[in-house]
DNA sequence: TTGATAATGTACGAACCAGTCCGTGTCAAA
DNA sequence: TTTGACACGGACTGGTTCGTACATTATCAA
């Protein structure tokens, strides 16, 4: 194997493992960008926390922005894989909606890093996301799922007819997302720890109740 | 007001006007930090856009973070002054809630800079806000207002009894805030311009209906 | 008028930080 | 065993950016 037999015992030489290296960089970069933002994150800091060097970051990702984009794409790829199999088609419309809302709620609750990355991307006017073909093609299946559930509910005469699927998704997402994204300012102003376990169930019930009450409601607003 | 009557008619020399200078810096800094964040914002860029110099920024605000904090405090001071006089006490509970929701909705819609600053502050874990005595004491009157309206509604037997005022404020804020803060990513994914005028009324009606349906609803969730 | 102090401008320093240069190590196919 | 493509590390650089030293002018009270 080795041609230099006289090599001192030291086996701890370099092991080439490009996949591991890339994965390692991405993992550390996700933490860094999620914690400090794109402008606030430091390439040197990322390099130090990996088992490789800064040179490798540029070798694999080209630039700081390239790395950030890779982090963002990986984060979105992960949620896309999660949102697939809820199998709501067999459930009664009300139960299907409850399941869907609970799933969204739990996703944001359990992935604060993703929530932060999305906030950061919004601060940057979603400019990186737009430039990514991968994320750009996220034509989210969740909307079709919601639309189908709404349609079934209307068919059964229990849902109002003027609810748009994207709007409803926004109503659900907004609450679930805000609860995590604005945890710190909201918690500070109202002296309430939004990550407290007792609020978890209460808030989950709340958004379920609100959404269901809304889709069944026949009231029109004067607002 | 001025006691030096013999003020020479406009020599184009320096005019000392500390209030104007501070105000000018704050105005420009708000734009810069709101656009690029705390880490992304550049002190030099701010200085160039003011009619004064970088020296003055450090003279009045001490540091970049000091300036950022001043920007944040001014933004919160502004909303505090706005949220005072809605005079909901005389309205029927349902109308009072509608008015309150519409007001929150319009505030976020009309103050995207404020929304961005709050997002940015959350990325920083609200650390500056916590260190500000001024903002820290924002014991928002809006919660008392909501609590009073809820109480009246319960008295009239039209509102459910288990709704917490802070939770309800969060439900309202979340939708109004998200609509502005996540405009870019959400809009990109769903190919929908969230600042489009026709969505303004639809979304306003939606959050009104949802909240009102919720507070009247007697359903308990199985989620 | 004058002296104290507040306000302002210019130019510069020092640290930081994204990105690169140059050289070395790894491995598999020829 | 040679070779070439891929993988890798450490030191360096040049521009950027926060912050400041020093000089100057304005204001106002005594």
From TrEMBL, chains A, B:
Pfam families: TetR_C_29, TetR_N
Keywords in alphabetical order: DNA-binding
Ranges where the HTH tetR-type domain occurs: 19-79
DNA-binding region: 42-61
GO MF term set: DNA binding
InterPro entries: Homeodomain-like_sf, HTH-type_TetR-like_transc_reg, HTH_TetR, NicS_C, Tet_transcr_reg_TetR-rel_C_sf
The organism's place on the tree of life at top rank: Bacteria
Disordered: annotated segments: 1-22
Residue ranges, compositional bias (Basic and acidic residues): 8-22
Protein name per the record: TetR family transcriptional regulator
Provenance organism: Rhizobium subbaraonis
């Amino acid at each position: 194997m080795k041609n230099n037999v006289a090599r001192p015992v030291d086996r701890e030489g370099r092991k080439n493992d490009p996949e591991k290296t890339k994965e390692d960089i991405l993992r550390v970069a996700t933490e860094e960008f999620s914690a400090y933002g794109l402008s606030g994150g430091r390439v040197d800091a990322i390099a130090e926390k990996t088992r490789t060097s800064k040179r490798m970051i540029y070798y694999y990702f080209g630039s700081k922005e390239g790395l950030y984009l890779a982090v963002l794409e990986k984060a979105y790829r992960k949620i896309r894989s999660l949102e697939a199999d809820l199998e709501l088609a067999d459930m009664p419309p009300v139960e299907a909606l409850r399941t869907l809302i609970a799933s969204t709620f739990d996703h944001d609750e359990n992935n604060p890093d993703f929530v932060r990355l999305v906030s950061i991307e919004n601060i940057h006017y979603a400019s990186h996301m737009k430039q990514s073909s991968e994320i750009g093609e996220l034509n989210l299946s969740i909307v079709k799922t919601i639309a189908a559930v709404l349609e079934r509910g209307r068919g059964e005469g229990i849902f109002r007819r003027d609810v748009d699927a994207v709007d409803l998704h926004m109503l659900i997402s907004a609450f679930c997302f805000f609860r995590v994204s604005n945890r710190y300012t909201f918690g500070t102003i109202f002296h309430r720890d939004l990550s407290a376990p007792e609020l978890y169930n209460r808030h989950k019930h709340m958004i379920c109740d609100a959404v269901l009450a809304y889709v069944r409601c026949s009231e029109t607003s004067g607002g």
